[in-house]
Amino acid sequence: MNNNTYCIIMAGGFGSRFWPICKDDSPKQFIDILGTGQSMLQTTFERFACICPRENIIIVTNRGYVDRVREQIDGLLPYQVLGEPTRRNTAPCVAYAASVIYEMNPNANVIVTPSDHAIFGMENFIHDMEQALQATERHDCILTIGVRPTNPNVKYGYIQFSEEPVDARATNLHKVITFTEKPPVVMARQFIATGEFFWNAGIFVWRLSTLRKAYEAFLPNIAKSYFALTSSTPQADVDNVYALSESISVDFGIMEHAENVYVMEASFGWSDVESWDSLYGIARHDEHNNGVVMGKSLLYDVKNSIVHVPSNRTVVLQGLDGYIVAANEDTILVCRRDNEDCIVKYISDVELMNSRGEKPRQ
Amino acid sequence: MNNNTYCIIMAGGFGSRFWPICKDDSPKQFIDILGTGQSMLQTTFERFACICPRENIIIVTNRGYVDRVREQIDGLLPYQVLGEPTRRNTAPCVAYAASVIYEMNPNANVIVTPSDHAIFGMENFIHDMEQALQATERHDCILTIGVRPTNPNVKYGYIQFSEEPVDARATNLHKVITFTEKPPVVMARQFIATGEFFWNAGIFVWRLSTLRKAYEAFLPNIAKSYFALTSSTPQADVDNVYALSESISVDFGIMEHAENVYVMEASFGWSDVESWDSLYGIARHDEHNNGVVMGKSLLYDVKNSIVHVPSNRTVVLQGLDGYIVAANEDTILVCRRDNEDCIVKYISDVELMNSRGEKPRQ
Predict the structure, then answer these.
(1) Looking at CB atoms within 10 Å, which of A197, A282, A357, B270 has the fewest?
(2) Do A332 and B315 touch (CB under 8 A)?
(3) Mutate: best of B21, B304, B334, B340, partner A, most A CBs <10 A
(4) Is A309 on the interface with B (CB under 8 A)?
């Protein structure tokens, strides 16, 4: 384990795809979506604690979630949790954390990661991260992790890479040619057919010096304001920086402009678990293709369904084919899997019902 | 209101047809099955408190439920709740309560009622009960309440009556010819076709003197042992009486033998609410024939279904036709309405799963 290695975990996400399991006040990263007994953030933290010292991990989240982070992960030092006053996408978030790391170690080699993705194959993951960290030590590059696509998913970002390996010491390391965010399905199919595209797993590795140069080149305003922040900057000053800051992602703000972007193919399994359908895809299935992720369940004549209820809750289902059955402490959802896209409507209808005491037309 | 009027509420029932809403430790009479905000026992008690003084109402229940009864109904005096040490069917239960009433008022006129039936039309109910009480004042008879059948329900008892009214002052009062418990459907259809049969609503009215004579004639052993009990009999002596007692219903033990059994046709609506199906039948339906009895619900493309979840719980359902969706604090059931008879199997499977930690074959 290298003391120069740092990790930035981005844990500010909100979102409601997994409603009612996830709600705005408890988004996906804080929930045990996978039924492992740990929240996705806890799993992510423990995963990176195998790669760098625990005190080198910085978690950036919305200020409203700071206490939640500290509840879920014991023994974090003050600088390890940074609370953003408002959402400004990933470029400001990474710049803030990078500036706090710079205070401690200007020579840091930094992994930036989402907090709510699923990783399968921990040994491969550690091996890949170590290889990536070695590559960014050798090259002044921004290294992204690519996943070989298995289907033309239109919700992912696609990375086109040059076939030629960059480096004889890492034959799975390629130069990036283009990034394409959420392509139409026809285009996604073509991408896959060429064999020259990866899914973007959202994990970047770069040295702090590379990172700072890239921000200064492509996002100079963000560099100027955020690189002035330290772990002891008063909250009001952090608020000012965020208030005046543009909102932009690392992908759009830097990756698409920089020349020195490489991609390494992951040897581990990955899912961004962004929908019930993707969770169904990675869940362990019984002989009737049901995925019971959480809850004590008895299923009779139930097929192709996914079940996620609190672990202390018993659920008895009969006569369902292709359903989502999900519950939290106060809400129950039973809906067809092919109807998942309507959940956002259900959420606003429930809010309407609870706020006005009236039922929307259905 | 006549101070001679007493009421015996039989609240010892257990049973699991409404699982998971009802369980052995909280059977139907203690639950708000109808979504009224009151348990069925509370509703029954308040209903009879309009007919006789509150302190004239005796509730007989299993000893394990005595505290539950006192929690649900405020201000009950010690003699008003009798705890049976074991189940001996209705004849012992009624004899015990009748003996306690006899202590207080040998001239009592007594209504015996289940605690877990639904009554619709309170004014008619009060009117019918008053008429029944007047009839038993005039006649030395056992008066049962009959309900005009609407379908050949095979789970009910049927009462064949003589067309001729007994009494010019109550033209809805008839002599009973036969009792038939749970007939086959073909027979039930014939019964209905003749127009000479009522459903047995399980409510009896009789003077205490009539009741005691009937027990002494047809159930002399029960009369001898139970009529010796008083409200201050030590628990151990009550236990002895129950331990040595036969187990028999008032219907089989007395009604089927006695000559002076009359039936009065109810002018109120009635259901014994003995199944999800019967609850569905009496629930208020929306325009898609859904009965949401309890819970805050949003239904999308849902038809012919019944929903009963805790009142503070939200339930969102989509794409269901003909289902039961029921939950208590720790269990959720989703099952086809036409599969209700399997619920008893589900219950034993859940018990097996929870006790042995293994799932039964499904």
Answers:
(1) A357
(2) yes
(3) B334
(4) yes
What is the pLDDT at residue A56? 98
Dmax (CA) of chain B:
66
**Nearest CB to B332 within list A332, A336, A342:** A332
This complex has an ipTM of: 0.86
**B24 against A176, higher pLDDT:** A176
Question: CA-nearest residue of chain B to A349?
Answer: B298
Main-chain dihedrals φ then ψ at residue B235, nearest 5 degrees: -55, -40
Tell me the DSSP string of B320-362: EESEEEEE-SSEEEEEEGGGGGGHHHHHHHHHHHHHHS-PPP-
Q: Which of A313, A334, A339 lies nearest to residue B334, judging by beta carbons?
A: A334
Q: Between vectors from CA A287 to CA A284 and to CA A293, what angle results, nearest 5°?
A: 30
Q: Which of A296, A315, A334 sits opposite B320 (nearest CB)?
A: A334
Place of tokens 């909280």: B26
Q: How confident is the model at residue A189 (pLDDT cuts 50, 70, 90)?
A: very high
The answer to whether B77 faces chain A, any CB pair under 8 Å, is no
Q: What type of residue sits at position B157? A: G
Least confident of A84-98, A346-360, B155-169, B328-342: A346-360
Q: Give the gap in angstroms from C-alpha A355 to the nearest C-alpha of chain B.
A: 12
pLDDT at B359: 65
Single-letter amino acid code for the residue at A148: R
**A313 to B332: CB separation less than 8 angstroms, yes or no:** yes
CA distances A16 to A235, A348, B348, Å, are 29, 11, 36
Q: Do A332 and B316 touch (CB under 8 A)?
A: yes
Distance (Å) of CA B340 to CA A317, A324, B184, B274: 12, 22, 20, 12
Q: Do A319 and B323 touch (CB under 8 A)?
A: yes
Instruction: Give the model confidence (pLDDT) of B96-152 as tens digits.
Output: 999 999 999 999 999 999 999 999 999 999 999 999 999 999 999 999 999 999 999
Taking only the tens place, the pLDDT of each residue in B253-298 is 999 999 999 999 999 999 999 899 999 999 999 999 999 999 999 9
Measured at the CA of A82, the angle between CA A80 and CA A85, to 5 degrees, comes to 170
Q: Is the pLDDT of residue B195 over 60?
A: yes
Q: Which residues of chain A lie closer than 8 angstroms to B353, CB-CB?
A: 296, 298, 314
Tens digits of residue pLDDT in A52-102: 999 999 999 999 999 999 999 999 999 999 999 999 999 999 999 999 999
Instruction: Give the DSSP H/E element, type plus range, for residue A107.
Output: none
For residue A243, give Cα distances in angstroms to A179, A240, A252, A289, B94: 29, 5, 20, 49, 77
Residues of chain A with Cβ-Cβ distance to B333 below 8 Å are 315-317
- Looking at the complex, does the CB of residue B352 fall below 8 Å from at least one CB of chain A? no
Query: Is the model's pLDDT at B24 over the cut of 80?
Result: no
Tell me the shortest Cα–Cα distance from B360 to chain A, in angstroms: 9
- Helical H runs in chain A? 40-48, 66-72, 90-104, 122-138, 185-194, 208-218, 220-226, 235-244, 250, 276-282, 343-356
Residue B282 and residue B265 in contact, taking contact as beta carbons nearer than 8 Å: no
Nearest CA in chain B to A346: B316
Q: Residue B54's pLDDT is what? A: 97
CA distance B282 to B278: 6
Q: Which two tokens stand for residue A180?
A: 């394409």
The answer to whether B309 faces chain A, any CB pair under 8 Å, is yes
Please state the separation of Cα B201 from the chain's center in Å: 8
Q: What is the mean pLDDT of residues B185-212?
A: 96
Peptide bond preceding A106: is omega within 30 degrees of 0, i.e. cis? no
Mutate which: A316, A323, A329, vs B, most B CBs within 10 A: A316
